[in-house]
Specification:
This protein is mostly helical. It has 10 helices and no strands.
Length: 202
């Protein structure tokens, strides 16, 4: 019972970490509502295209930190093993549906990167770096988010097996990867549908 209550508390704390609206606040200081421009997502990619490089860098760092802190604090509370991905997913959900921005948010990829760094250390950092390169390379394709998520997860599996470290946790990380991937697919489909509707109304 105590372990269950600890897990629930860890999820609540992680949700708050994830819900912190850095992209929204940083963009608003520049006079831009990040939810009404570009993709409408509060993430580093949208901030980069519509606010500026330094603002995007700040958002990226803060969002990665949110994911890492969710894991670190949950670990300090006593959540261990694959159970750490439960509060990790709560942090991603908080980023998607922030109580501070009327339940709007970003796609969660940077937070997933922070989770990977906190759980896998150097392997997670290298995975995030490679996924970031893939995302930059495919910047103009609608599959940008999808490709970086898929490649990132495959790289993580390869590296954990190569170094014979955290293999069980790498399998558990699929929960995070699939969660972010499903959300990205849903978001892309919605934006494409809205774009077609706008074109048909012209």
């Amino acid at each position: 019972m105590q372990e269950f209550l600890t897990l629930i508390l860890a999820c609540l704390v992680s949700y708050i970490f994830g819900a912190l609206p850095f992209a929204h606040r940083i963009s608003r200081r520049q006079g831009i509502d990040i939810f009404s421009i570009g993709t409408g997502l509060a993430g580093a990619s949208n901030v980069l295209k519509n606010v500026g490089r330094w603002s995007a860098l700040m958002v990226l760092v803060f969002d990665i930190a949110k994911g890492a802190l969710a894991v670190i604090v949950s670990g300090m509370m006593g959540v261990e093993g694959v159970w750490i991905f439960v509060p990790a997913c709560a942090a991603i959900f908080g980023h998607w549906n922030s109580i501070f921005t009327r339940f709007k948010g970003g796609d969660g990829m940077a937070i997933a990167g922070g989770i990977a760094i906190a759980v896998f250390g150097g392997i997670g950092l290298l995975t995030l770096f490679i996924a970031g390169l893939v995302s930059l390379a495919a910047q103009k394709l609608w599959i940008t988010s999808l490709s970086s998520i898929v490649v990132g997860f495959l790289v993580l599996l390869f590296l954990t097996r190569l170094f014979n470290r955290h293999e069980e946790l790498a399998v558990g990380f699929i929960t995070v990867a699939l969660m972010v991937l499903a959300h990205a697919l849903k978001g892309h489909a919605q934006r494409r549908r809205l774009a077609k509707q706008s074109e048909s109304n012209l």
